[in-house]
Amino acid sequence: MPGLTVEPAMHRANSAIAAGVMLAESDNLVRPLPGLLDGLNRADCNRLRAIGREKALEAGQLVWSQGDTQAGIYLISEGRIRSYYAAPSGREVTLAYWFPGNFVGGPDIFGTGPHMWTSVAAERSRLTFMPGPALRRLALESPAIAVALLDALAFKARCYSAMAQMLGTRSVTERLHSLLIFLSHVYGVKRGDEIVVGMPFTHGDLANLIGSTRQWVTVQLARLQEEGVIRYDRSVISILDLSTLAQQAE
């Protein structure tokens, strides 16, 4: 079944989040990846931290804008970062939400080309900026750091390839239903006969993730609510009939 690929259940206490949230044709196409620093020894972690500069962002503040010149990468320590592409028409498509352990920036991680999309703090966040030239020197000096960066870039490439497949082969209705199912699997908290998605998503958030419009999502969520499949209240989604939702997604 097509769906949204995400890291293991966010509602579990102290769960580590490294993959992020994005559309994918199948959850087997995009595998969760440990955080950038997870596979490094203490010495290499310290070398990366030594070139880093801390930066705090409030919700809505830009990390960079589409077209800005790249200067390096930002490693997420706390919070949630949304990366999106803005078309000339002004329409936005969310590429991913990234969480602690991930970095944003690329594909030119050493800071040579323009940013291909915008990244913005979806909530209060703390990041560590690693300048491209210094990061390049460390990659040349440490095979472990170079491999960690390559693994992370390969993971992101799989994510965006899977997203392109999903957008190109599935209807917008299938994408919405599959998104709701996977959000329930990962963020869902069982409460009686319903599953409450433990992270708020606005109509705009959902629309940007599936490549649709906020108005269309609003109509579809209202229809699903009338049918008794979901309940939507102040950005909180409750799945009332998961089996029906799964049948519609297929």
From TrEMBL:
InterPro entries given in the database record: cNMP-bd_dom, cNMP-bd_dom_sf, Env_Response_Regulators, HTH_CRP, RmlC-like_jellyroll, WH-like_DNA-bd_sf, WH_DNA-bd_sf
Keyword 4Fe-4S: no
Gene Ontology terms, MF aspect: DNA binding; DNA-binding transcription factor activity
Entry's Gene Ontology cellular component terms: cytosol
Domain HTH crp-type: residue ranges: 170-243
Boundaries of every Cyclic nucleotide-binding domain copy: 36-156
Top-level lineage group: Bacteria
Keywords: DNA-binding, Transcription, Transcription regulation
Entry keyword annotation includes GTP-binding: no
Segments passing through the bilayer: none
One Pfam entry name: HTH_Crp_2
Protein name per its UniProtKB record: Crp/Fnr family transcriptional regulator
